[in-house]
Amino acid sequence: MDKTQTSARPEVPHLPARDAGALFAEHALLPGGWARDVLLRWDAGGRLVCAAPGSDAGDAPRAPGPVVPGMPNLHSHAFQRAFAGLTEYRAQAQDSFWSWRDLMYRFAARISPESLQAIATWLYVEMLEAGYTSVCEFHYVHHDQGGRPYADDATLSLALLRAARAAGIGITLLPVLYQASGFGGRPPRADQARFIRSTDNMLSLLERLAPATRAQEAVLGLAPHSLRAVPPDSLRAAVQGLTALDARAPIHIHVAEQRQEVDDCVAWSGQRPVQWLLDHASVDARWCLVHATHMTPEEYAAAARTGAVAGICPTTEANLGDGIFDMPLWLQHGGRWGVGSDSHACVNAAEELLMLEYSQRLSLRQRNVLAGSGQPQVGTALWLAAVQGGAQAAGRAVAGIAEGQQADFAVLDPRHVALAGLPAEAMLSAHVFASSRGTALHGVWTGGVQRVAAGRHALHERAAQEFVAARAAIIAA
Asked: Which listed residue (326, 342, 408, 413) is catalytic?
């Protein structure tokens, strides 16, 4: 390990005590589909001990509308929420992901621990109000504004944990390993200095963060940023080191997001990125392949066979001009998937699913593409699949409304004009496809604690004000 690390232990953000609880739903979306008269009970640890259809309500409170499982957000760069809307102008003759990235780096250079916590707290409040109940935080801004480690090397990671604790969202913290500016181990650029860590230094950080994440019931994993940013020897050593710390810890990686990335990988190795990764790493169900937009049919088949989750971020991929993931081909091979809000140009679980389905319709010139043979309702099919894949990517027990899973769920608002008077299944479809960029959720629970009531989080006003102030200070700098 890197002996230059300070020996100070990071603060441990313990969760407050919770009570056992119950809720009765006339309609609830269980892993096997919609069910009637479902009694939910959870223990003081926030785990469901009962999810029984055909029950009497007894003394349990009644949900005002249909209950659906909370959505895991499998890919987030929290600080980029404050950057949303600042790049929607033409800076070059042909703007691209790469010109966007240059502007994003300039913004990242001004992030402080205080501003990161304020931005992330508001973002996580937004996520909860929009139906996300857990988040995988792909965290790569590590050092101070000069690229030097903070006296407490866990400073920015702890800011994210505090933000998640304050909002009440479950978190999978994925510190990012970033070492090079391009394939072949090219030296990092000056504007990447805040991201760079040695492999030993990263493993030291993971060891130091482990007590804090356990105390918060969070999950700690690793995110090798990409094949271009992590040389092969470092990727191998980092995965081995993580596995020695926790053999079940999730591993997330950006891969094959842009065509230029594919071309550069072929020039470096003679292989496409997904092909190279599958040949040189033991990819399995612990892995999340974020974006994976540009794959050959052979890569789709091989990647799906590993059991890895495809991390699709439809609104960000549209915003950055990445391209369209071939979801029917992925599903043909039994591939698992989930959604993330990534750069947070949009923070809305329903809208990510809408964009995913619509991108497939535009590509194939068909309708209702992602309905399944056993589930003709597109909204229901999308919601269930994204919850399952997102839970796997998060490494958390958030795979739906079932015994042993976290009591993470949302209640649809039956008085919302888009939902009023509809059957339960149609309400979910209306939430996904017809709620006009707003939320049609009445309440949201995580770990059995209600975080959102009547569509609003208790921290909404304060967190919004602190976010606006933090963003203004960054722009002014």
From this structure: 342
